[in-house]
Amino acid sequence: MRRCLLSAIGICRDYGLTLLIPPAARHSNFENGYLDQTVETTIPMDQILDIEYMERAFGIEINPINGTLYQFWKETLGGTEKTNSLVTYPKWQGKMMMASGKTIQNVRRQIQNAKTPIIFAKGRWYSRKYYPTWYNAYTRHSPYFLKISHMVMKAMGTDFDSFHIRLGDYEERALKRNANCGNMIKTALESGMSQDRPVYVATDGMMRDNMGKLTPYFQPMSAFKRVVSQVDLAEIPEVAEALIDFKHRLPTTKIYMDTFGMVEQLIAARGRTFMGTSVSTFSRTISHMRHYMLTTIPDMADPANKVPWKVGSSYLSGWSGRLAGRGRSQNLAKPIEDLQFGPKAPNTEPDRNIAVRAHNKKGKKGGKNNNDDDSD
Fold it and tell me: Which residues fall in a coiled-coil region (predicted)?
Protein backbone atom coordinates (compact mmCIF):
# COMPACT_ATOMS: atom_id res chain seq x y z
CA MET A 1 0.00 0.00 0.00
CA ARG A 2 2.75 2.46 0.94
CA ARG A 3 4.65 2.03 -2.33
CA CYS A 4 1.46 2.48 -4.36
CA LEU A 5 0.78 5.68 -2.47
CA LEU A 6 4.28 7.07 -2.98
CA SER A 7 4.20 6.18 -6.70
CA ALA A 8 0.86 7.97 -7.05
CA ILE A 9 2.19 11.02 -5.19
CA GLY A 10 5.17 11.10 -7.54
CA ILE A 11 2.91 11.06 -10.60
CA CYS A 12 0.64 13.75 -9.16
CA ARG A 13 3.57 16.01 -8.32
CA ASP A 14 5.05 15.60 -11.79
CA TYR A 15 1.83 16.42 -13.65
CA GLY A 16 0.00 18.75 -11.28
CA LEU A 17 -2.78 16.29 -10.39
CA THR A 18 -5.03 15.83 -7.39
CA LEU A 19 -4.70 12.44 -5.74
CA LEU A 20 -7.82 10.43 -4.94
CA ILE A 21 -6.94 7.56 -2.62
CA PRO A 22 -9.26 4.65 -1.85
CA PRO A 23 -9.55 3.30 1.69
CA ALA A 24 -7.20 0.89 3.38
CA ALA A 25 -8.57 -2.62 3.72
CA ARG A 26 -7.87 -6.06 5.09
CA HIS A 27 -4.85 -7.87 3.69
CA SER A 28 -6.15 -9.27 0.41
CA ASN A 29 -5.10 -11.47 -2.49
CA PHE A 30 -3.86 -8.99 -5.08
CA GLU A 31 -6.00 -6.21 -6.54
CA ASN A 32 -9.08 -8.34 -7.31
CA GLY A 33 -9.30 -9.37 -3.66
CA TYR A 34 -9.16 -5.71 -2.72
CA LEU A 35 -12.13 -4.91 -4.98
CA ASP A 36 -14.19 -7.51 -3.10
CA GLN A 37 -13.78 -5.66 0.20
CA THR A 38 -16.96 -4.29 1.79
CA VAL A 39 -17.35 -1.01 3.66
CA GLU A 40 -17.10 -2.95 6.93
CA THR A 41 -13.59 -4.14 6.10
CA THR A 42 -12.20 -0.79 4.97
CA ILE A 43 -11.13 2.42 6.66
CA PRO A 44 -10.69 5.85 4.98
CA MET A 45 -7.08 6.87 4.54
CA ASP A 46 -7.55 10.18 6.34
CA GLN A 47 -8.09 8.08 9.49
CA ILE A 48 -4.70 6.42 8.97
CA LEU A 49 -2.48 9.13 7.50
CA ASP A 50 -1.91 12.77 8.42
CA ILE A 51 -3.31 14.00 5.11
CA GLU A 52 -3.04 17.71 5.93
CA TYR A 53 0.65 17.35 6.76
CA MET A 54 1.34 15.31 3.62
CA GLU A 55 -0.46 17.82 1.40
CA ARG A 56 1.84 20.56 2.67
CA ALA A 57 4.89 18.34 2.36
CA PHE A 58 4.30 17.18 -1.20
CA GLY A 59 2.56 20.25 -2.55
CA ILE A 60 -0.47 18.40 -3.93
CA GLU A 61 -4.11 18.02 -2.98
CA ILE A 62 -5.03 14.62 -1.51
CA ASN A 63 -8.68 13.55 -1.27
CA PRO A 64 -9.65 10.26 0.41
CA ILE A 65 -12.48 8.23 -1.14
CA ASN A 66 -14.83 7.57 1.76
CA GLY A 67 -16.36 4.38 0.44
CA THR A 68 -15.06 1.26 -1.24
CA LEU A 69 -13.10 1.51 -4.46
CA TYR A 70 -15.63 -0.81 -6.06
CA GLN A 71 -18.43 1.66 -5.26
CA PHE A 72 -16.39 4.52 -6.74
CA TRP A 73 -15.59 2.49 -9.86
CA LYS A 74 -19.17 1.25 -10.28
CA GLU A 75 -21.20 4.31 -9.32
CA THR A 76 -18.91 7.16 -10.41
CA LEU A 77 -16.93 5.66 -13.29
CA GLY A 78 -19.68 3.48 -14.74
CA GLY A 79 -18.28 0.06 -13.88
CA THR A 80 -16.28 -0.55 -17.07
CA GLU A 81 -12.55 -0.59 -17.72
CA LYS A 82 -12.68 1.18 -21.06
CA THR A 83 -11.28 4.66 -21.47
CA ASN A 84 -14.05 7.18 -22.14
CA SER A 85 -14.71 10.91 -21.78
CA LEU A 86 -14.71 10.63 -17.98
CA VAL A 87 -11.79 8.32 -17.19
CA THR A 88 -8.51 7.18 -18.71
CA TYR A 89 -7.09 3.74 -17.83
CA PRO A 90 -3.33 3.74 -18.55
CA LYS A 91 -2.33 0.48 -20.26
CA TRP A 92 0.71 -1.48 -19.14
CA GLN A 93 1.74 -5.11 -18.77
CA GLY A 94 3.01 -7.07 -15.77
CA LYS A 95 4.17 -5.88 -12.38
CA MET A 96 5.02 -2.20 -12.33
CA MET A 97 7.82 -2.91 -9.85
CA MET A 98 9.58 -5.00 -12.52
CA ALA A 99 8.73 -2.66 -15.41
CA SER A 100 11.45 -1.44 -17.74
CA GLY A 101 12.29 2.21 -18.17
CA LYS A 102 10.53 2.08 -21.54
CA THR A 103 7.30 0.88 -19.93
CA ILE A 104 7.52 3.58 -17.25
CA GLN A 105 7.95 6.26 -19.89
CA ASN A 106 5.05 4.87 -21.89
CA VAL A 107 2.76 5.05 -18.85
CA ARG A 108 3.95 8.58 -18.15
CA ARG A 109 3.08 9.62 -21.71
CA GLN A 110 -0.40 8.13 -21.38
CA ILE A 111 -0.99 10.08 -18.18
CA GLN A 112 0.46 13.30 -19.56
CA ASN A 113 -1.63 13.09 -22.74
CA ALA A 114 -4.88 12.13 -21.01
CA LYS A 115 -7.70 14.65 -21.51
CA THR A 116 -10.20 13.12 -19.09
CA PRO A 117 -11.06 14.48 -15.61
CA ILE A 118 -9.93 11.21 -13.94
CA ILE A 119 -7.02 8.85 -14.51
CA PHE A 120 -7.49 5.41 -12.93
CA ALA A 121 -4.27 3.43 -12.42
CA LYS A 122 -5.24 -0.15 -11.61
CA GLY A 123 -3.30 -3.27 -10.72
CA ARG A 124 -0.02 -3.76 -8.87
CA TRP A 125 0.91 -0.14 -9.25
CA TYR A 126 4.23 0.80 -7.75
CA SER A 127 7.77 1.45 -8.87
CA ARG A 128 10.65 3.27 -7.22
CA LYS A 129 11.15 4.98 -10.57
CA TYR A 130 8.13 7.17 -9.82
CA TYR A 131 9.46 8.72 -6.63
CA PRO A 132 12.75 9.60 -4.89
CA THR A 133 13.71 8.09 -1.53
CA TRP A 134 13.04 11.30 0.40
CA TYR A 135 9.28 10.82 -0.09
CA ASN A 136 9.46 8.34 2.80
CA ALA A 137 10.40 11.23 5.10
CA TYR A 138 7.02 12.93 4.71
CA THR A 139 4.70 9.94 4.85
CA ARG A 140 3.26 10.33 8.33
CA HIS A 141 0.62 8.33 10.19
CA SER A 142 -2.32 10.08 11.83
CA PRO A 143 -1.85 11.96 15.12
CA TYR A 144 -4.18 9.39 16.73
CA PHE A 145 -1.94 6.46 15.72
CA LEU A 146 1.13 8.39 16.88
CA LYS A 147 -0.54 9.05 20.25
CA ILE A 148 -1.26 5.37 20.88
CA SER A 149 2.26 4.32 19.93
CA HIS A 150 3.63 7.02 22.25
CA MET A 151 1.57 5.62 25.12
CA VAL A 152 3.05 2.16 24.52
CA MET A 153 6.57 3.61 24.40
CA LYS A 154 6.08 5.28 27.79
CA ALA A 155 4.63 2.08 29.24
CA MET A 156 7.70 0.18 27.99
CA GLY A 157 9.93 2.59 29.89
CA THR A 158 11.01 4.68 26.85
CA ASP A 159 14.21 2.64 26.37
CA PHE A 160 13.42 -0.66 24.65
CA ASP A 161 14.32 -2.70 21.58
CA SER A 162 11.95 -4.11 18.96
CA PHE A 163 11.42 -6.93 16.47
CA HIS A 164 9.15 -7.53 13.52
CA ILE A 165 8.98 -11.24 12.73
CA ARG A 166 6.99 -11.99 9.58
CA LEU A 167 5.20 -15.34 9.68
CA GLY A 168 1.53 -15.58 8.66
CA ASP A 169 1.29 -17.19 5.23
CA TYR A 170 5.11 -17.42 5.21
CA GLU A 171 5.24 -19.61 8.32
CA GLU A 172 5.96 -22.85 6.44
CA ARG A 173 8.91 -21.23 4.70
CA ALA A 174 10.14 -19.76 7.99
CA LEU A 175 10.08 -23.18 9.68
CA LYS A 176 12.14 -24.65 6.86
CA ARG A 177 14.86 -22.11 7.69
CA ASN A 178 14.74 -22.63 11.45
CA ALA A 179 12.48 -24.31 14.01
CA ASN A 180 12.28 -21.11 16.09
CA CYS A 181 13.38 -17.50 16.12
CA GLY A 182 16.56 -18.29 18.05
CA ASN A 183 18.93 -17.48 15.20
CA MET A 184 17.29 -14.10 14.60
CA ILE A 185 17.68 -13.31 18.30
CA LYS A 186 21.32 -14.45 18.22
CA THR A 187 21.97 -12.10 15.30
CA ALA A 188 20.19 -9.25 17.09
CA LEU A 189 22.25 -9.71 20.26
CA GLU A 190 25.47 -9.88 18.25
CA SER A 191 24.42 -6.63 16.54
CA GLY A 192 24.03 -4.69 19.79
CA MET A 193 20.57 -5.52 21.14
CA SER A 194 20.55 -6.03 24.92
CA GLN A 195 18.90 -8.79 26.94
CA ASP A 196 18.58 -6.28 29.78
CA ARG A 197 16.19 -4.03 27.86
CA PRO A 198 12.52 -4.89 27.27
CA VAL A 199 11.57 -5.85 23.71
CA TYR A 200 8.41 -5.24 21.71
CA VAL A 201 7.62 -7.94 19.16
CA ALA A 202 5.33 -7.16 16.23
CA THR A 203 4.32 -10.34 14.41
CA ASP A 204 1.50 -11.96 12.45
CA GLY A 205 2.34 -15.31 14.03
CA MET A 206 0.89 -16.79 17.21
CA MET A 207 3.27 -15.63 19.90
CA ARG A 208 1.44 -16.86 23.02
CA ASP A 209 -0.79 -19.86 23.67
CA ASN A 210 -4.10 -19.85 25.56
CA MET A 211 -2.19 -19.94 28.85
CA GLY A 212 -0.21 -16.81 27.96
CA LYS A 213 3.05 -18.73 27.48
CA LEU A 214 5.39 -18.23 24.54
CA THR A 215 4.68 -20.67 21.71
CA PRO A 216 7.55 -22.97 20.58
CA TYR A 217 8.64 -20.71 17.71
CA PHE A 218 8.96 -17.70 20.03
CA GLN A 219 10.35 -19.56 23.06
CA PRO A 220 13.86 -18.06 22.58
CA MET A 221 12.35 -14.64 23.37
CA SER A 222 12.42 -15.67 27.03
CA ALA A 223 16.08 -14.61 26.98
CA PHE A 224 14.96 -10.98 27.28
CA LYS A 225 14.16 -9.08 30.46
CA ARG A 226 10.59 -8.37 29.34
CA VAL A 227 8.73 -9.35 26.18
CA VAL A 228 5.65 -7.42 25.02
CA SER A 229 3.49 -8.04 21.96
CA GLN A 230 0.09 -6.89 20.76
CA VAL A 231 -1.71 -9.51 22.87
CA ASP A 232 0.01 -8.22 26.02
CA LEU A 233 -1.00 -4.57 25.64
CA ALA A 234 -4.45 -5.08 27.15
CA GLU A 235 -2.70 -6.04 30.40
CA ILE A 236 -1.03 -2.63 30.66
CA PRO A 237 -3.53 -0.33 32.46
CA GLU A 238 -2.43 2.91 30.82
CA VAL A 239 -2.75 1.35 27.35
CA ALA A 240 -5.81 -0.88 27.79
CA GLU A 241 -8.32 2.00 27.74
CA ALA A 242 -6.78 3.40 24.56
CA LEU A 243 -7.13 0.00 22.87
CA ILE A 244 -10.82 -0.15 23.75
CA ASP A 245 -11.31 3.29 22.21
CA PHE A 246 -9.34 2.18 19.13
CA LYS A 247 -11.57 -0.88 18.61
CA HIS A 248 -14.74 1.20 19.03
CA ARG A 249 -13.63 3.54 16.24
CA LEU A 250 -13.46 0.69 13.71
CA PRO A 251 -16.51 -0.40 11.69
CA THR A 252 -15.87 -4.04 12.61
CA THR A 253 -13.37 -6.15 14.51
CA LYS A 254 -12.52 -7.87 11.20
CA ILE A 255 -10.18 -5.01 10.34
CA TYR A 256 -8.63 -4.59 13.79
CA MET A 257 -5.42 -6.55 13.24
CA ASP A 258 -4.72 -5.00 9.84
CA THR A 259 -5.28 -1.49 11.15
CA PHE A 260 -3.44 -1.94 14.44
CA GLY A 261 -0.50 -3.29 12.45
CA MET A 262 0.17 0.29 11.38
CA VAL A 263 0.27 1.35 15.02
CA GLU A 264 2.70 -1.51 15.66
CA GLN A 265 4.98 -0.14 12.96
CA LEU A 266 5.19 3.09 14.94
CA ILE A 267 5.81 1.22 18.20
CA ALA A 268 8.60 -0.87 16.67
CA ALA A 269 10.12 2.22 15.04
CA ARG A 270 10.53 3.81 18.48
CA GLY A 271 12.94 1.13 19.73
CA ARG A 272 16.63 1.80 20.34
CA THR A 273 17.57 -1.21 18.21
CA PHE A 274 15.22 -2.73 15.64
CA MET A 275 15.46 -6.16 14.00
CA GLY A 276 13.07 -6.85 11.11
CA THR A 277 12.46 -9.69 8.66
CA SER A 278 14.28 -9.23 5.38
CA VAL A 279 11.44 -10.49 3.13
CA SER A 280 8.89 -8.03 4.53
CA THR A 281 8.09 -4.53 3.31
CA PHE A 282 6.38 -4.07 6.69
CA SER A 283 9.86 -4.30 8.24
CA ARG A 284 11.34 -2.07 5.55
CA THR A 285 8.71 0.57 6.23
CA ILE A 286 9.74 0.56 9.91
CA SER A 287 13.36 1.06 8.83
CA HIS A 288 12.30 3.99 6.64
CA MET A 289 10.41 5.54 9.55
CA ARG A 290 13.51 5.29 11.70
CA HIS A 291 15.76 6.74 8.99
CA TYR A 292 13.48 9.82 8.82
CA MET A 293 12.37 9.80 12.44
CA LEU A 294 12.28 13.57 12.95
CA THR A 295 9.44 13.88 10.44
CA THR A 296 7.73 10.47 10.67
CA ILE A 297 7.63 10.34 14.50
CA PRO A 298 8.42 13.94 15.53
CA ASP A 299 7.69 13.52 19.25
CA MET A 300 10.78 11.29 19.57
CA ALA A 301 12.91 14.44 19.58
CA ASP A 302 10.83 16.11 22.32
CA PRO A 303 13.10 16.53 25.39
CA ALA A 304 10.07 15.88 27.61
CA ASN A 305 10.07 12.24 26.48
CA LYS A 306 13.62 11.77 27.79
CA VAL A 307 14.61 9.25 25.14
CA PRO A 308 18.04 8.06 26.41
CA TRP A 309 19.59 7.53 22.97
CA LYS A 310 20.14 9.81 20.00
CA VAL A 311 20.94 7.41 17.14
CA GLY A 312 19.48 3.91 16.99
CA SER A 313 20.37 0.91 14.85
CA SER A 314 18.17 -0.97 12.36
CA TYR A 315 18.76 -4.47 10.99
CA LEU A 316 17.02 -6.87 8.63
CA SER A 317 17.54 -10.59 9.00
CA GLY A 318 16.31 -13.76 7.34
CA TRP A 319 14.55 -16.40 9.46
CA SER A 320 17.84 -18.28 9.43
CA GLY A 321 19.50 -15.38 11.22
CA ARG A 322 21.48 -14.30 8.18
CA LEU A 323 21.92 -10.52 8.30
CA ALA A 324 20.52 -8.96 5.13
CA GLY A 325 20.63 -5.23 5.81
CA ARG A 326 21.53 -2.56 8.33
CA GLY A 327 21.00 1.14 8.88
CA ARG A 328 20.72 3.87 11.50
CA SER A 329 17.91 6.01 12.77
CA GLN A 330 17.92 9.75 12.25
CA ASN A 331 19.85 11.66 14.88
CA LEU A 332 17.32 12.88 17.45
CA ALA A 333 19.66 15.69 18.46
CA LYS A 334 19.32 17.34 15.04
CA PRO A 335 17.09 20.43 15.26
CA ILE A 336 13.70 19.72 13.70
CA GLU A 337 13.67 23.12 12.01
CA ASP A 338 16.63 22.04 9.85
CA LEU A 339 14.29 19.75 7.92
CA GLN A 340 12.48 21.34 5.01
CA PHE A 341 9.52 20.19 2.98
CA GLY A 342 10.18 18.97 -0.53
CA PRO A 343 9.81 21.39 -3.47
CA LYS A 344 6.27 22.26 -4.46
CA ALA A 345 4.79 20.43 -7.44
CA PRO A 346 3.85 22.42 -10.56
CA ASN A 347 0.11 23.04 -10.61
CA THR A 348 -0.37 22.94 -14.38
CA GLU A 349 -3.65 21.03 -14.63
CA PRO A 350 -5.50 21.40 -11.30
CA ASP A 351 -8.81 20.08 -12.66
CA ARG A 352 -7.56 16.52 -13.29
CA ASN A 353 -7.32 13.70 -10.79
CA ILE A 354 -5.64 10.35 -10.44
CA ALA A 355 -7.06 7.41 -8.50
CA VAL A 356 -4.72 4.57 -7.59
CA ARG A 357 -5.90 1.16 -6.50
CA ALA A 358 -4.40 -0.07 -3.25
CA HIS A 359 -3.41 -3.71 -3.31
CA ASN A 360 -1.47 -6.46 -1.61
CA LYS A 361 1.15 -8.59 -3.33
CA LYS A 362 2.85 -11.80 -2.37
CA GLY A 363 5.64 -13.55 -4.17
CA LYS A 364 9.05 -13.07 -5.65
CA LYS A 365 10.54 -9.72 -6.34
CA GLY A 366 13.25 -11.30 -8.42
CA GLY A 367 16.46 -13.06 -7.57
CA LYS A 368 17.24 -15.75 -5.03
CA ASN A 369 16.05 -15.16 -1.48
CA ASN A 370 14.63 -11.79 -2.44
CA ASN A 371 10.96 -12.33 -1.71
CA ASP A 372 8.82 -9.39 -0.77
CA ASP A 373 5.32 -9.05 0.60
CA ASP A 374 3.28 -5.87 0.68
CA SER A 375 2.18 -5.84 4.31
CA ASP A 376 2.75 -2.14 4.77
Answer: none
The reply to whether 369 falls in a domain is no
> What is the phi-psi region of residue 97: left when phi exceeds 0, alpha when psi lies from -120 to 50, beta otherwise?
alpha
Query: Do 290 and 330 share a domain, yes or no?
Result: yes
Three-class DSSP category at 287: helix
> CB burial class (10 A; 0-12, 13-18, 19+) of residue 259?
buried
pLDDT band at residue 341 under the 50/70/90 scheme: low
Can you say how many angstroms the Cα of residue 298 is from the centroid of all Cα atoms in its chain? 17
H/E segment holding residue 276: strand 273-277
Are 172 and 95 in a shared domain? Answer: no
Residue 28: other Cβ atoms inside 10 A: 17
- The percentage of the chain sitting over the pLDDT mark of 70, rounded to a whole number, equals 87
- pLDDT for residue 352 is more than 70: no
User: Taking all residues of the chain, what is their mean pLDDT, rounded to a whole number?
Assistant: 85
pTM for the predicted model, two decimal places: 0.86
Please provide residue 320's backbone torsions phi and psi, each rounded to the nearest 5 degrees: -75, -10
> Is 261 part of a structural domain of the chain?
yes
Q: Count the neighbouring beta carbons within 10 Å of the beta carbon of residue 306.
A: 9
| Same domain membership, residue 98 and residue 41 | yes
Whole-angstrom Cα distance, residue 234 to residue 321? 31
